[in-house]
Design goal:
Two copies of one chain form a homodimer.
Chain A lengths: L5 H19 L6 H8 L3 H7 L3 H26 L3 H17 L5 H7 L6 H28 L8 H19 L5 H15 L3 H4 L5
The first copy, chain A, binds a DNA duplex through helix 3.
Chain lengths: 202, 202
Amino acid sequence: MPDTDPAATRSRVLDVSERLVQTRGYNGFSYGDVARELGLTRAALHYHFAGKAELGQALIERYATRFAAALARLDATAPDAAAKLRGYVGLYADVLAADRMCLCGMLAAEHRTLPEPLRRAVCDFFTANTVWLRRVLEEGCADGSLRCPGTAEATASVVLGTLEGAMLITRLDGDLARFTATADQLLDGLAAVPDRAAPAHA
Amino acid sequence: MPDTDPAATRSRVLDVSERLVQTRGYNGFSYGDVARELGLTRAALHYHFAGKAELGQALIERYATRFAAALARLDATAPDAAAKLRGYVGLYADVLAADRMCLCGMLAAEHRTLPEPLRRAVCDFFTANTVWLRRVLEEGCADGSLRCPGTAEATASVVLGTLEGAMLITRLDGDLARFTATADQLLDGLAAVPDRAAPAHA
DNA sequence: GTCTATACGTGGATAGAC
DNA sequence: GTCTATCCACGTATAGAC
């Protein structure tokens, strides 16, 4: 095979674009940025992806697929619901450790400027996340590894919102420790340790 | 005075720009957008603000000043720390009700692409918020209106992160009710009602 | 598959008239 | 203060050669 493997180039384009969108946003990167970094021309990119919108769609589809696979892996390997939740937080920490924002969190901020199919894909991503979280929270209440104040639905929103928001803000100074502290406090609030909850009236 | 009052025009430019940045992001709006909406030319805007960077700075300065004033008003009028916290959440709900993202939350997402002075201002905004929240949380533990699991610092991060993150996500479908449910659950978790915390061992 | 060349719009900005 | 005119760089995209 030649050194110009279409699939390989396509994959590298996606890798570079993904990093650029996660760090600079959809409106903050261009074909020129990607081409320069790969030593290609802008025209060459149009061979692999018809336009920026199509590139964006391919980006989010791959991201969503990977994320779903990671969640499936957690479901398959984690011993209980609490461990699944810790694993979920770990996924976010990994992204932040690479000095990136969640791809869909970034796109959510810009959603008013996105091509419609992209906007839909972002919504679907968060819906899938909320569904998974709600199920894990319900599992946790059943297997006794988690306690769920209020509804599982609202708690799922709190978890998702806290993680996305904490990423958004701690990325400003790259303070991974602050993210971890925030996430730990979130997890503590959902942990099924009866003694920790009410320290007031001994 | 003529109908071309410089201060008035400047103020209207800021109003329109603020809305555009909050909905579309810094990289998603242009002098052209603002000029069109105000019936001016791009060149006219350059009279009021030297460039986009200066406009952005003026924007964030006015926003931060307003926000600080709102916090001071809460300090002055709220009966206790819990009420201050509810008022704080209300500020976010108002922004979301106008179908906007928090200005600084939006800019935080794009921070890698911002002119340096703007980036600094965004950091300062969140620092000020965290400081205020930490103080209110400590007050709440003292006056008995709040309970603070973990450190006040980490809890302040959780509050800030949850609100920014919940805005980011619920804005996708404009579901204000979902934001409210999320925020209420957050507040419940910090409320100083000893009975609610430990429902397990009656 | 990748290139050069080219097209066309837009964005930010400046000069100078009124 | 606001305009017209103009500038230049950039971004997206297409045509056609190799």
